[in-house]
Write a structure and sequence with these properties.
Blueprint lengths: L16 E2 L1 H8 L3 H9 L6 E3 L2 E5 H11 L5
Antiparallel strand pairs: 1-3, 2-3
C-alpha cells in the first residue's frame, strides 16, 4: 500500500461568544463603557435571556474599525 501525503485541513474559525467580563478583560475596557456602547447600539451584541453576549469575530471587526489609521 502506498502512503499518501496528509491532506491539509482548512482551518474553520468557529465563532465564540464572549461574556461581558471576558470582553472587558480581552479589550481592556470598563463594563460601564461597554454598557454605554450597547445602549447606543454601537457594538454588536446578542442577548441570551437578560445576559449580554458578544460574538468574538464581530467584536474584533468593531474594534478594528475604531482603530485610528496612520497614513
Amino acid at each position: 500500500a502506498m502512503l499518501r501525503a496528509p491532506v491539509p485541513v482548512e482551518k474553520v474559525e468557529v465563532d465564540t461568544y464572549l461574556t461581558l467580563k471576558e470582553l472587558c478583560a480581552e479589550y481592556k475596557v470598563k463594563e460601564g463603557t461597554v454598557y454605554q456602547w450597547v445602549h447606543k447600539s454601537e457594538i454588536p451584541y446578542s442577548k441570551c435571556g437578560h445576559l449580554l453576549r458578544f460574538n468574538s469575530s464581530e467584536v474584533r471587526k468593531y474594534f478594528d474599525s475604531k482603530r485610528h489609521k496612520n497614513n
